[in-house]
Structure formats: C-alpha cells, structure tokens
Amino acid sequence: MDPNLPVPRALTVVQLPDGTYTYADPANLPAPQAPQQIVQHIHHAPPDRTMQRIALGSGVGAGTVAAGVYFGPLLVGVLTAIAANLALLAFLAAVMAWGVVTVVRSVGGSEGKAASKALRKTRNR
Question: Dihedral (C-alpha) 91, 94, 95, 99: value to the nearest 10 degrees?
Fold first, then answer.
C-alpha cells in the first residue's frame, strides 16, 4: 500500500430524487431535517341549529333534541328508500299490465274483438 494515498472512508448508499441509487460521502450529506407538519383546514358550513334552539327554548330536553338530530337524517334516508322501492314496483306493475293487455289483444279471437268493440261503443256514448 502506498502511504501517500488517502485512507478510504466508508461510503453510504443514498437514493436520488429520480429514484436511482448512488454512493455518497456521509460527510457531504445534508443534515436530516424534521418532517414538515402539514395543517389542513377543512371548511364546512356550520349546521343550522334553528330547530334545536326553538326546541330547547320551548322546554324540550337536550336528549330529545339529540335524538331528533340523530334520527332525523336516518328517517329521511329510510323514507327515500321506501319511495324508491314503491316507484320501482309501480313501474313493474305498469309494464306487466301493458304486457298482459298486449298478449290478450294478440291472442284473443273474434270474441275478444267483439267485446272490445262493445266496450268502445259504451265509452263513446
């Protein structure tokens, strides 16, 4: 070994910003920084408390108001689901009635046509 050569120091493997790895001298690395704390403010409109104030002012207890606040949206959700189910059932009933009428008209013989003519005449009067 040549005494004039510098003594090799331990090198460190670091990851560059582009994702590749390289050797670096630990003496030249920047000092580690503390992670930056990010404070995120989420702005929401304040809830409307008019009904709560009226209820509490009229002597209704806080438990009743809390139950109304909790169960009110649940009730709206349940009623919406019921209305959607009823709308779907009404649509299915209309489609099935249309299908039955179409089949009866196409399959019905002369008696069905005579009955529909008689019915049409009674409606026109």
Answer: 170
List C-alpha distances in Å: 93 to 34, 84, 85, 87, 104: 67, 14, 12, 10, 16
**pLDDT tens-digit profile of 8-41?**
566 677 788 888 877 777 777 677 777 777 776 6
**Could you identify the residue written with the tokens 């929401």?**
44
For residues 70 and 52, the answer to whether their CB atoms sit within 8 Å is no
For the record, the structure tokens of 19 come out as 């994702």
Residues 17, 19, 22, 27: is their CA dihedral positive or negative? positive
Angle at 123 between CA 119 and CA 98, to 5 degrees: 65
